[in-house]
């Protein structure tokens, strides 16, 4: 834990010193990887599949808010889906509009959660997100995380839909829309994931907000158990096609991610808890103060801002002794100069 706290302080120093360069670089990297993954998954429009276009737009996204990156990625996704079928693009557009209405209303600054959720779904590890999101982003993190899962399954369904159109099993426009809706309704995987993640985020958030000691630890444990149980129930009851091995590994890694969030964001020492009581004209206040764990910097150097040379303790002692000897000699000389007269 000490190592993690030292790493946290080091990262904070680096970020505070180079944040002007770090933030645009990270935003550029996230946007560029997102465009490449989108083109690799559903790159049906050849003009937008050019890596140079993704590179140029990523440079622009690096200097604009996260919402702009989400918007451009949505436009790219709709354009690729339109290359497959206008009906599919229409259904996806409805989902995107609902997402924007909720996203910009409740979580306008948490678009990174949506992108991270899509990344984790891509690598078959979406179970890393809920506990960390509940600890760090709050209960409204349900919105970007849920839509991240939905967007991933829209992209995943696109190839199956293209195969159905290519085989001419679906020809009429209404049949195509009906096929898309049935594909989403009959796919229990994303429904189970959305329910499990939403409940887990809510449980973690409300427990970590409690005033009891070690509330964050209890929240991590409760979130891990909640997510695991809901996923198991979904696999058994709804016959969801979720890989059990990846689910168990991902849930354990999600608990580890929650522990890292606790160390980096909420490292406190409950042994030194203080209770303060005071009042004003209208209320009595009972305050529980829990101090943070701070790492003392061993490389701290103190400079003496003084023109005089610093004296050692031994030198000061010798100076004082010399002053005392001089004073004693002066007193003895004064005694010799005194004249006594007899009456």
Helix content: over 70%
**How many individual domains?**
1
Low-confidence stretches: 338-343
Most strands sheet: 2 strands, antiparallel
Percent of sequence in beta strands:
under 5%
Order of helices and strands: HHHHHHHHHHHEEH
* Overall form: globular
**Derived structural class:** mainly alpha
Q: Taking strands numbered 1, 2, ... along the chain, how are they ordered across the largest sheet?
A: 1-2
Layout of secondary structure:
Layout: H1 2-42, H2 51-61, H3 66-84, H4 86-106, H5 111-122, H6 129-136, H7 142-166, H8 173-186, H9 188-208, H10 215-237, H11 244-265, E1 274-279, E2 284-289, H12 313-336
Antiparallel strand pairs: 1-2
Describe the structure in your own words.
The protein has one domain. The protein has twelve helices and two strands, in the order H-H-H-H-H-H-H-H-H-H-H-E-E-H. The chain has helices at residues 2-42, 51-61, 66-84, 86-106, 111-122, 129-136, 142-166, 173-186, 188-208, 215-237, 244-265, 313-336, and strands at residues 274-279, 284-289. A hairpin with a 4-residue loop joins strand 1 (274-279) and strand 2. The model is unreliable at 338-343 (pLDDT under 50).
């Amino acid at each position: 834990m000490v190592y993690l706290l030292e790493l946290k302080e080091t990262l904070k120093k680096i970020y505070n010193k180079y944040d002007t360069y770090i933030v645009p670089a990270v935003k550029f990297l996230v946007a560029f990887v997102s465009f490449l993954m989108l083109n690799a998954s559903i790159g049906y429009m050849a003009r937008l599949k050019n890596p140079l276009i993704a590179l140029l737009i990523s440079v622009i996204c690096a200097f604009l808010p996260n919402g702009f990156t989400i918007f451009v990625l949505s436009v790219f996704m709709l354009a690729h889906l339109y290359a497959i079928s206008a009906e599919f693009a229409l259904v996806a557009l409805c989902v995107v509009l609902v997402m924007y209405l909720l996203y910009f209303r409740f979580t306008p600054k948490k678009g990174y959660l949506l992108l991270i959720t899509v990344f984790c779904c891509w690598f078959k590890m979406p179970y890393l997100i809920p506990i960390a999101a509940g600890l760090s982003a709050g209960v409204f993190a349900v919105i970007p995380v849920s839509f991240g899962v939905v967007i991933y399954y829209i992209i995943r369904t696109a190839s199956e839909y293209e195969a159905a159109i290519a085989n001419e099993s679906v020809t009429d426009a209404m049949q195509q829309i009906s096929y898309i809706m049935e594909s989403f309704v009959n796919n229990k995987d994303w429904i189970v994931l959305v329910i499990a993640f939403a409940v887990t985020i809510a449980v973690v958030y409300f427990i970590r907000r409690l005033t009891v000691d070690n509330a964050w630890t209890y929240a991590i444990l409760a979130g891990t158990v909640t997510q695991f149980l809901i996923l198991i129930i979904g696999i058994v009851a709804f016959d969801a096609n979720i890989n059990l091995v990846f689910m168990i590994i991902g849930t354990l890694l999600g608990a580890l991610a929650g522990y890292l969030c606790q160390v980096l964001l909420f490292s406190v020492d409950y042994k030194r808890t203080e209770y303060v009581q005071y009042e004003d004209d209208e209320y009595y206040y009972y305050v529980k103060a829990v101090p943070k764990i701070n790492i003392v910097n061993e490389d701290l150097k103190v400079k003496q801002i003084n023109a005089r040379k610093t004296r050692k303790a031994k030198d000061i002692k010798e100076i004082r002794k010399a002053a005392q000897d001089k004073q004693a000699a002066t007193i003895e000389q004064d005694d010799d100069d005194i004249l006594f007269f007899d009456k």
